[in-house]
Design goal:
single chain, alpha/beta, nine-stranded mixed β-sheet, 26% strand, elongated
Length: 232
């Protein structure tokens, strides 16, 4: 089967899977590609990796359009994704309402699972929050940094630590078996990121890529977006 190739942040993986069958029916194409840290996906497009569509943060898609790698008229917002806390399904939920409570929750964890702290949206934010809370050095040895949020959550699910915790985007938490969405980050530490789609300038299947954008952003998919973890 001919496939539409995408480069996407991990935040959109569950949503893309949710519309894959409708996309196949409409176009006859499957969907293939990579899901990972948004910075790495942008760099893959810059390096010439074949792609029909990118789904990254709004800031990155805008930058890629300025660089001539994404068609400006094709850009469309999909929705906001929150960065949140996660625990194993069998563990008590961790709810924090202040910076002090978040600091103590992270200090109490014997393993903290997060995505790439240099290239992923959530990982970069976690690193910033740890510095903000004044505990970056204290918890460094317990920080489990994985290539992306999906991998971090799978490792959290399989962890034999006594009190592990995770922090990544809600969409990646919801999509992982054995993991529970535990709670939002408190005011001052919170982050909601707009994810945006754009057709690659050198797309082999530009019309079909626009069809996928319409499926991902259409009003009829609102409930699917909400179930996948998008806030809007």
């Amino acid at each position: 089967m001919v496939t539409l190739n995408i480069l996407s942040g991990g935040a959109a993986q569950g949503l893309v899977a949710g519309v894959a069958e409708a996309f196949r029916v409409q176009t006859g194409l499957g969907i293939d590609g990579e899901f990972g840290a948004v910075g790495l996906m942008a760099d893959r497009l810059r390096a010439g990796t074949p792609a029909d569509l990118v789904i990254l943060t709004r800031a990155l898609v805008t930058r890629l359009a300025e660089e001539g790698l994404v068609v400006p008229s094709s850009i469309a917002d999909i929705g906001l994704v929150e960065t949140a806390l996660a625990v194993r399904s069998r563990d008590p939920r961790v709810t924090v309402t202040s910076e002090a409570e978040l600091r103590e929750a992270l200090r109490a964890a014997d393993a903290i699972f997060v995505p790439d702290t240099k290239a992923s949206t959530a990982g970069i934010h976690v690193a910033k929050v740890l510095e903000q809370l004044g505990i970056a050095d204290e918890v460094a040895a317990r920080l489990k940094i994985l290539p992306n949020g999906a991998t971090a959550m799978r490792q959290l699910a399989a962890s034999d630590a006594r009190r592990p915790i995770g922090c990544t985007q809600t969409t990646e938490i919801i999509a992982t078996d054995g993991i529970a969405l535990s709670g939002s980050l408190p005011p001052g530490c919170d982050l909601a990121t707009m994810y945006t789609a754009g057709v690659a300038t050198h797309a082999a299947n530009p019309a079909q890529a626009r069809t996928l954008v319409n499926l991902l952003t259409g009003a009829e998919q609102r409930e699917l977006r909400l179930r996948a973890g998008f806030a809007a």
